[in-house]
Amino acid sequence: MKHKGIICGILAAICYGTNPLGALPLYAEGVNTASVLFFRFSIATVILGVILAAKRKNLAVTRGELATMASLGVLMAASSITYYQSFHFMDAGIASTILFVYPVMVAVIMATFFRERVTATTITSIILALVGICLLYKGDAGVSLSMIGILLVMVSSLTYAVYIVIVNQSNIRMSTMKLTFYVLLICATCLLAYSFTSPELHLMLPPSPRAWFFACWLGLMPTVLSLVFMTIAVHEVGATPTAIMGALEPLTAVAIGVLVFGESFTFRLAVGIVLILSAVFLIVLSKRFHLHTIKNRITMLVKKTWRWKS
Questions:
Q1: pLDDT, position 308
Q2: Which of 13, 51, 163, 237 has the fewest Cβ atoms nearer than 10 Å?
Q3: What is the C-alpha to C-alpha distance for residues 306 and 310, in angstroms, rounded to an integer?
Protein backbone atom coordinates (compact mmCIF):
# COMPACT_ATOMS: atom_id res chain seq x y z
CA MET A 1 0.00 0.00 0.00
CA LYS A 2 1.33 3.42 -0.96
CA HIS A 3 0.44 5.03 2.34
CA LYS A 4 2.34 8.24 1.66
CA GLY A 5 0.62 9.01 -1.65
CA ILE A 6 -2.87 8.24 -0.38
CA ILE A 7 -2.44 10.26 2.81
CA CYS A 8 -1.02 13.20 0.83
CA GLY A 9 -3.88 13.01 -1.70
CA ILE A 10 -6.45 13.15 1.11
CA LEU A 11 -4.63 16.00 2.89
CA ALA A 12 -4.32 17.96 -0.38
CA ALA A 13 -8.08 17.78 -0.93
CA ILE A 14 -8.91 18.71 2.66
CA CYS A 15 -6.49 21.66 2.65
CA TYR A 16 -7.91 22.94 -0.65
CA GLY A 17 -11.43 22.60 0.71
CA THR A 18 -10.64 25.23 3.37
CA ASN A 19 -10.79 27.99 0.73
CA PRO A 20 -14.12 29.36 2.08
CA LEU A 21 -12.54 30.03 5.49
CA GLY A 22 -10.22 32.53 3.87
CA ALA A 23 -12.06 33.80 0.81
CA LEU A 24 -15.49 34.57 2.29
CA PRO A 25 -14.21 36.86 5.09
CA LEU A 26 -12.06 38.74 2.55
CA TYR A 27 -15.03 39.22 0.23
CA ALA A 28 -17.06 40.41 3.23
CA GLU A 29 -14.45 43.11 3.84
CA GLY A 30 -14.73 44.31 0.24
CA VAL A 31 -11.54 42.81 -1.22
CA ASN A 32 -12.02 42.15 -4.95
CA THR A 33 -11.40 38.84 -6.73
CA ALA A 34 -8.15 39.82 -8.45
CA SER A 35 -6.69 40.95 -5.13
CA VAL A 36 -7.77 37.80 -3.29
CA LEU A 37 -6.10 35.64 -5.95
CA PHE A 38 -2.92 37.73 -6.11
CA PHE A 39 -2.36 37.83 -2.35
CA ARG A 40 -3.23 34.15 -2.02
CA PHE A 41 -0.48 33.10 -4.41
CA SER A 42 2.07 35.82 -3.59
CA ILE A 43 1.90 35.10 0.15
CA ALA A 44 2.23 31.40 -0.63
CA THR A 45 5.34 32.17 -2.70
CA VAL A 46 6.86 34.16 0.17
CA ILE A 47 6.14 31.34 2.65
CA LEU A 48 7.88 28.75 0.49
CA GLY A 49 10.72 31.15 -0.33
CA VAL A 50 11.44 31.71 3.37
CA ILE A 51 11.39 27.95 4.04
CA LEU A 52 13.76 27.24 1.13
CA ALA A 53 16.09 30.06 2.21
CA ALA A 54 16.14 28.78 5.80
CA LYS A 55 17.11 25.34 4.51
CA ARG A 56 19.69 26.94 2.19
CA LYS A 57 18.32 25.09 -0.80
CA ASN A 58 19.89 25.63 -4.20
CA LEU A 59 17.30 27.38 -6.39
CA ALA A 60 19.16 26.90 -9.68
CA VAL A 61 17.11 25.32 -12.48
CA THR A 62 17.78 24.26 -16.05
CA ARG A 63 16.13 25.86 -19.06
CA GLY A 64 13.99 22.76 -19.61
CA GLU A 65 12.84 22.71 -15.98
CA LEU A 66 11.99 26.42 -16.15
CA ALA A 67 9.88 25.85 -19.27
CA THR A 68 7.90 23.07 -17.56
CA MET A 69 7.39 25.13 -14.40
CA ALA A 70 6.33 28.14 -16.46
CA SER A 71 3.63 26.06 -18.15
CA LEU A 72 2.45 24.83 -14.73
CA GLY A 73 2.35 28.37 -13.36
CA VAL A 74 0.34 29.66 -16.32
CA LEU A 75 -2.08 26.73 -16.06
CA MET A 76 -2.58 27.34 -12.34
CA ALA A 77 -3.25 31.04 -12.95
CA ALA A 78 -5.67 30.31 -15.80
CA SER A 79 -7.56 27.74 -13.72
CA SER A 80 -7.87 30.13 -10.76
CA ILE A 81 -8.92 33.15 -12.85
CA THR A 82 -11.60 31.31 -14.85
CA TYR A 83 -12.97 29.61 -11.73
CA TYR A 84 -13.26 32.82 -9.73
CA GLN A 85 -14.66 34.73 -12.73
CA SER A 86 -17.41 32.12 -13.10
CA PHE A 87 -18.81 33.35 -9.76
CA HIS A 88 -19.95 36.50 -11.59
CA PHE A 89 -22.22 34.37 -13.81
CA MET A 90 -23.45 31.60 -11.51
CA ASP A 91 -23.74 30.57 -7.90
CA ALA A 92 -20.48 29.39 -6.34
CA GLY A 93 -22.14 26.10 -5.36
CA ILE A 94 -22.97 25.31 -8.99
CA ALA A 95 -19.46 26.28 -10.08
CA SER A 96 -17.92 23.98 -7.46
CA THR A 97 -20.15 21.13 -8.64
CA ILE A 98 -19.28 21.56 -12.32
CA LEU A 99 -15.57 21.99 -11.52
CA PHE A 100 -15.38 18.41 -10.35
CA VAL A 101 -15.45 17.09 -13.91
CA TYR A 102 -11.65 17.42 -13.81
CA PRO A 103 -11.06 13.83 -12.57
CA VAL A 104 -12.95 12.62 -15.67
CA MET A 105 -10.76 14.86 -17.83
CA VAL A 106 -7.61 13.53 -16.16
CA ALA A 107 -8.72 9.94 -16.74
CA VAL A 108 -9.55 10.65 -20.42
CA ILE A 109 -6.23 12.44 -21.03
CA MET A 110 -4.20 9.70 -19.36
CA ALA A 111 -6.04 6.96 -21.28
CA THR A 112 -5.93 8.76 -24.65
CA PHE A 113 -2.40 10.14 -24.69
CA PHE A 114 -0.51 7.95 -22.22
CA ARG A 115 -2.39 4.64 -22.60
CA GLU A 116 -3.27 4.40 -18.93
CA ARG A 117 -5.74 1.57 -18.38
CA VAL A 118 -9.09 2.79 -17.08
CA THR A 119 -10.27 0.14 -14.64
CA ALA A 120 -13.81 -0.63 -13.51
CA THR A 121 -12.81 0.64 -10.06
CA THR A 122 -11.75 4.00 -11.52
CA ILE A 123 -15.00 4.39 -13.47
CA THR A 124 -17.10 3.40 -10.44
CA SER A 125 -15.19 5.83 -8.20
CA ILE A 126 -15.68 8.69 -10.65
CA ILE A 127 -19.43 8.01 -10.92
CA LEU A 128 -19.85 7.78 -7.15
CA ALA A 129 -17.88 11.00 -6.64
CA LEU A 130 -19.81 12.92 -9.32
CA VAL A 131 -23.20 11.84 -7.92
CA GLY A 132 -22.04 12.67 -4.41
CA ILE A 133 -20.86 16.15 -5.47
CA CYS A 134 -24.22 16.81 -7.16
CA LEU A 135 -26.01 15.90 -3.93
CA LEU A 136 -23.85 18.37 -2.00
CA TYR A 137 -25.13 21.22 -4.14
CA LYS A 138 -28.09 23.05 -2.60
CA GLY A 139 -29.32 25.33 -5.37
CA ASP A 140 -32.74 26.76 -6.13
CA ALA A 141 -34.90 24.70 -8.46
CA GLY A 142 -35.60 26.16 -11.88
CA VAL A 143 -32.58 28.47 -11.97
CA SER A 144 -31.16 28.62 -15.51
CA LEU A 145 -27.42 28.22 -15.93
CA SER A 146 -25.26 30.79 -17.69
CA MET A 147 -23.45 29.36 -20.70
CA ILE A 148 -20.57 31.79 -20.10
CA GLY A 149 -20.34 30.60 -16.52
CA ILE A 150 -20.34 26.95 -17.58
CA LEU A 151 -17.66 27.64 -20.19
CA LEU A 152 -15.45 29.38 -17.63
CA VAL A 153 -15.73 26.48 -15.16
CA MET A 154 -15.04 23.92 -17.88
CA VAL A 155 -11.89 25.83 -18.89
CA SER A 156 -10.88 25.91 -15.22
CA SER A 157 -11.42 22.15 -14.93
CA LEU A 158 -9.47 21.42 -18.11
CA THR A 159 -6.49 23.59 -17.19
CA TYR A 160 -6.33 22.01 -13.72
CA ALA A 161 -6.56 18.52 -15.26
CA VAL A 162 -3.69 19.32 -17.64
CA TYR A 163 -1.72 20.68 -14.66
CA ILE A 164 -2.10 17.36 -12.82
CA VAL A 165 -1.12 15.36 -15.92
CA ILE A 166 2.01 17.46 -16.53
CA VAL A 167 3.08 17.02 -12.90
CA ASN A 168 2.58 13.27 -13.33
CA GLN A 169 4.43 13.00 -16.64
CA SER A 170 7.25 15.53 -16.21
CA ASN A 171 10.83 14.36 -15.77
CA ILE A 172 11.73 17.15 -13.34
CA ARG A 173 13.97 15.89 -10.55
CA MET A 174 13.78 18.40 -7.73
CA SER A 175 12.19 18.74 -4.32
CA THR A 176 8.44 19.21 -4.19
CA MET A 177 8.84 22.52 -2.31
CA LYS A 178 11.25 23.92 -4.89
CA LEU A 179 8.95 22.95 -7.75
CA THR A 180 5.91 24.41 -6.00
CA PHE A 181 7.82 27.63 -5.20
CA TYR A 182 8.57 28.34 -8.86
CA VAL A 183 5.06 27.39 -9.97
CA LEU A 184 3.54 29.77 -7.41
CA LEU A 185 5.99 32.55 -8.32
CA ILE A 186 5.06 32.33 -12.00
CA CYS A 187 1.37 32.04 -11.12
CA ALA A 188 1.52 35.16 -8.91
CA THR A 189 3.26 37.05 -11.72
CA CYS A 190 0.50 36.07 -14.15
CA LEU A 191 -2.15 37.17 -11.66
CA LEU A 192 -0.40 40.52 -11.20
CA ALA A 193 -0.51 41.07 -14.96
CA TYR A 194 -4.15 39.98 -14.99
CA SER A 195 -5.04 42.52 -12.30
CA PHE A 196 -4.17 45.36 -14.69
CA THR A 197 -6.50 44.05 -17.38
CA SER A 198 -9.40 42.73 -15.26
CA PRO A 199 -12.68 44.66 -14.87
CA GLU A 200 -11.70 45.36 -11.25
CA LEU A 201 -8.66 47.27 -12.58
CA HIS A 202 -6.58 47.46 -9.42
CA LEU A 203 -5.15 45.51 -6.52
CA MET A 204 -6.48 46.19 -3.04
CA LEU A 205 -4.44 45.72 0.10
CA PRO A 206 -6.24 43.73 2.82
CA PRO A 207 -7.92 46.53 4.82
CA SER A 208 -7.42 45.15 8.35
CA PRO A 209 -5.27 42.80 10.45
CA ARG A 210 -8.14 40.32 10.29
CA ALA A 211 -8.11 40.48 6.49
CA TRP A 212 -4.34 39.95 6.44
CA PHE A 213 -4.82 36.87 8.62
CA PHE A 214 -7.28 35.35 6.17
CA ALA A 215 -5.04 36.27 3.22
CA CYS A 216 -2.20 34.39 4.94
CA TRP A 217 -4.58 31.50 5.57
CA LEU A 218 -5.32 31.31 1.84
CA GLY A 219 -1.61 31.40 1.08
CA LEU A 220 -0.78 28.58 3.49
CA MET A 221 -3.62 26.03 3.71
CA PRO A 222 -5.37 25.79 0.31
CA THR A 223 -2.27 26.83 -1.64
CA VAL A 224 1.14 25.85 -0.22
CA LEU A 225 0.06 22.75 1.70
CA SER A 226 -2.52 21.68 -0.88
CA LEU A 227 -0.13 21.92 -3.84
CA VAL A 228 2.78 20.29 -2.01
CA PHE A 229 0.62 17.37 -0.88
CA MET A 230 -0.97 17.08 -4.33
CA THR A 231 2.41 16.93 -6.10
CA ILE A 232 3.61 14.18 -3.75
CA ALA A 233 0.37 12.23 -4.24
CA VAL A 234 0.55 12.44 -8.04
CA HIS A 235 4.09 11.07 -8.04
CA GLU A 236 3.23 8.30 -5.55
CA VAL A 237 -0.16 6.99 -6.69
CA GLY A 238 -0.77 8.61 -10.10
CA ALA A 239 -2.78 11.43 -11.61
CA THR A 240 -6.21 9.81 -11.86
CA PRO A 241 -6.45 8.47 -8.26
CA THR A 242 -5.22 11.82 -6.91
CA ALA A 243 -7.86 13.65 -8.95
CA ILE A 244 -10.62 11.35 -7.65
CA MET A 245 -9.50 11.88 -4.06
CA GLY A 246 -10.08 15.57 -4.79
CA ALA A 247 -13.77 14.79 -4.15
CA LEU A 248 -12.94 15.49 -0.52
CA GLU A 249 -12.48 19.18 -1.44
CA PRO A 250 -16.19 20.10 -1.71
CA LEU A 251 -16.97 17.71 1.15
CA THR A 252 -14.59 19.72 3.34
CA ALA A 253 -16.22 22.94 2.18
CA VAL A 254 -19.64 21.57 3.13
CA ALA A 255 -18.35 20.50 6.56
CA ILE A 256 -16.97 24.01 7.10
CA GLY A 257 -20.31 25.50 6.06
CA VAL A 258 -22.17 23.35 8.58
CA LEU A 259 -19.71 23.61 11.48
CA VAL A 260 -18.45 27.20 11.04
CA PHE A 261 -21.11 29.11 9.13
CA GLY A 262 -24.14 27.36 10.65
CA GLU A 263 -25.55 25.88 7.44
CA SER A 264 -28.13 23.10 7.79
CA PHE A 265 -27.15 19.44 7.53
CA THR A 266 -29.71 17.41 5.57
CA PHE A 267 -30.22 13.78 4.62
CA ARG A 268 -29.27 14.69 1.06
CA LEU A 269 -25.91 16.02 2.26
CA ALA A 270 -25.38 12.86 4.30
CA VAL A 271 -25.96 10.64 1.24
CA GLY A 272 -23.61 12.80 -0.84
CA ILE A 273 -20.89 12.52 1.79
CA VAL A 274 -21.28 8.72 1.98
CA LEU A 275 -20.97 8.43 -1.81
CA ILE A 276 -17.84 10.60 -1.90
CA LEU A 277 -16.21 8.69 0.94
CA SER A 278 -17.08 5.45 -0.86
CA ALA A 279 -15.34 6.71 -4.01
CA VAL A 280 -12.20 7.58 -2.08
CA PHE A 281 -12.38 4.27 -0.19
CA LEU A 282 -12.49 2.35 -3.49
CA ILE A 283 -9.39 4.19 -4.72
CA VAL A 284 -7.56 3.42 -1.48
CA LEU A 285 -8.48 -0.26 -1.73
CA SER A 286 -7.47 -0.43 -5.39
CA LYS A 287 -4.04 0.89 -4.48
CA ARG A 288 -3.72 -1.43 -1.54
CA PHE A 289 -4.99 -4.69 -2.96
CA HIS A 290 -3.99 -5.37 -6.56
CA LEU A 291 -5.04 -8.79 -7.84
CA HIS A 292 -1.50 -10.14 -7.98
CA THR A 293 -0.92 -8.93 -4.41
CA ILE A 294 -4.03 -10.75 -3.21
CA LYS A 295 -2.92 -13.88 -5.05
CA ASN A 296 0.54 -13.72 -3.48
CA ARG A 297 -0.89 -13.22 0.01
CA ILE A 298 -3.29 -16.14 -0.39
CA THR A 299 -0.44 -18.33 -1.64
CA MET A 300 1.74 -17.37 1.33
CA LEU A 301 -1.14 -18.06 3.72
CA VAL A 302 -1.74 -21.51 2.21
CA LYS A 303 1.97 -22.34 2.45
CA LYS A 304 2.14 -21.25 6.09
CA THR A 305 -0.99 -23.26 6.90
CA TRP A 306 0.41 -26.34 5.16
CA ARG A 307 3.72 -26.07 7.08
CA TRP A 308 1.80 -25.68 10.34
CA LYS A 309 -0.26 -28.82 9.65
CA SER A 310 2.86 -30.71 8.70
A1: 45
A2: 51
A3: 6
